[in-house]
Write a structure and sequence with these properties.
Layout (H helix, E strand, L loop, with lengths): L4 E11 L2 E9 L12 E2 L2 E3 L6 H13 L9 E7 L5 E8 L11 E5 L7 E5 L1 E7 L1 H4 L8 H15 L2
Parallel strand pairs: 1-6
Antiparallel strand pairs: 1-2, 1-4, 2-3, 2-9, 5-6, 7-8
């Protein structure tokens, strides 16, 4: 069985010593009424013929409808989610206006078993949050990236 792999970019900014990250609420009917565990780093799957960083950049554009901001990508490593999927993430220090996001869409049968297909946004909203605000909202397998980013920022800023 082939392990699915996914890659993404976690934008971050600091202001007045406060770290914030940009995370996305997953779109579609399965996530519509959920908050805890329904947010994600903007990311997506990739195949063996694409590098993880190229996939992370492509998925950022597909999911948010905006170009990847300039900034040096900081590798945050990888983790295995409960589903078995391996997720690799880079952090990029940049600012982005959530109101400017124009999410990509996906099509699925809805309601299930109805034979009708509908289009839904990949993400239905994005928001800046502190790591403490983001942690309970993120898919549990991605919370490690908040910890790794916080460590990086503390080390960089000498805190």
């Amino acid at each position: 069985m082939t392990v699915k792999r996914s890659a993404g970019l976690l934008l971050f900014r600091t202001s007045g010593g406060i770290l914030e990250v940009l995370i996305a609420h997953m779109g579609g009917p399965a996530w519509a009424s959920r908050d805890a565990g329904a947010w994600s780093v903007p990311k997506g799957e990739y195949e063996a013929d694409e590098t993880p960083e190229a996939a992370a950049r492509r998925e950022f554009v597909e999911e948010l409808g905006l170009p990847v901001p300039d900034g040096e990508p900081v590798p945050l490593g990888e983790t295995r989610q409960a589903s078995g999927k391996i997720v690799t993430v880079w952090a990029v220090e940049a600012d982005l206006d959530p109101a400017a996001v124009v999410p990509g869409t996906f099509t699925m049968e809805w309601p299930r078993g109805s034979g009708r297909t509908r289009e839904f946004p990949e993400v239905d909203r994005v928001a800046w949050m502190t790591p403490e605000e983001a942690a309970p909202r993120l898919v549990s397998g991605q919370q490690v990236f908040l910890e790794r980013l916080s460590e990086y920022v503390r080390g960089r800023d000498g805190s």
